[in-house]
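Protocol step 4 of 5: obtain the predicted structure for the target chain.
Materials: sequence only (see below). No template structures provided, no constraints applied. The aim of this step is simply to have a reference model before the mutagenesis design in step 5. Sequence pasted as it appears in the construct record:
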Amino acid sequence: MRQKCPFRIAPDGNHAIQMGVIFNWTRPPINIAAHTDQAFAVPMQPRARGALRISSKTYGGTSVIDDLYQQGCFKALFPRAAAGGLTGVFLNTSGGMTGGDELSIHATAGADSRLTLTSQAAERVYLAQPGPMAQMTTRLVAKGGARIDWLPQETILFNGSALRRKLEVDLTGDACFFGVEPLVFGRVSMGETLSDARFADNITIRRDGHPIFADAVRLSGDIHTQLAGTATAGGNCAMASVIYAAPDAEALLAPLRALLPASAGASLIRDGVLYARLLAPDSYILRQSLVPIIARLHGAAPPKTWML
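Step 4 output (C-alpha cells):
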C-alpha cells in the first residue's frame, strides 16, 4: 500500500516541507496554452546554401582550371570546349531557390585566359514564405588580355517567389566581358502569372576600378499587371539583358541589331559597352532570339547546355 508522505508548512508561509525537501508552492502556474502553441509552431524551413569559386589560367596555349572550390548545393562540371577556352557548367543540386536560400559564384579569368560559365538548366525560384528573399550573388573578374562570358540559362520566377540578384564584373585593361541574363515571369504554357512576387536585380561593370555600366530592376506585387503596360513590357512575360564590354563593341553594334526581333533594341551606350534588351511573349520565343545572338557575340557555338 502506498503511504502518504506528510508535510508541514514552513515558517515563511510560502513553502512546504516534505521528507526534508522544501517545495515552493507560490511559483507562477504553468501556461498550458503557451506550451501548446510552441509544440505546434511551424518549424523553420531548411535553407539552401551554395558557393562556387572558379579561376582559369593559360597552360600550353589553352585555358585550364587554376582554382576550384565548391560548397553546399552548388557544383561545377567542365565539359570539353573548343576554341581553347574553359567552360564551366554550374548546377544547383537543391532543385531551385526559395526565400532565405543563398547562392554565390566568384569567378576569375586569369591573364590572357578565356572562361565561359553557363548553367546546366534553367533556375527556378519558387514560392517563398514571408521573410527573407532568395539571394544570388555573382562576382566576375577578368585580368588583362582575358575574356569571361556569363551565359546562364533562364531564371524562372514562380508566383509568390522572392529573389534578390546581383552581378558585379571587374575588368582590367583590355579584358572582355560578354553576358546574357534571361528572365521569365511565369511559364505561359502552364498558365502561370505573377500576381504576387518580389524581384530585385542589380548589374554593375567596372574597368580598372571605374564604373562603366550599371542597371537595376525592381518589381514587387502584381508583376503581371505591371508588365502589361506599354511603357514596361507590353504584356510580354520574358526578357533578357545582353551586355558586351570590349574594345571592339562598336564594330558589333550593326551585326547585333540585325539579329534582334522587333521587340528588342540595342545601343552603344558608351565607348566599349554594347547593351541590348529583348522582350518576348514566352521563354521559347526568347530563346529563339538569344541563341543566334550568343553565337555571334560569343564568337563560337553556344554552350551545349543551351542547345539541349
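Step 4 remarks: The radius of gyration is 28 Å. The first helix runs from residue 32 to 39.
Proceed to step 5.
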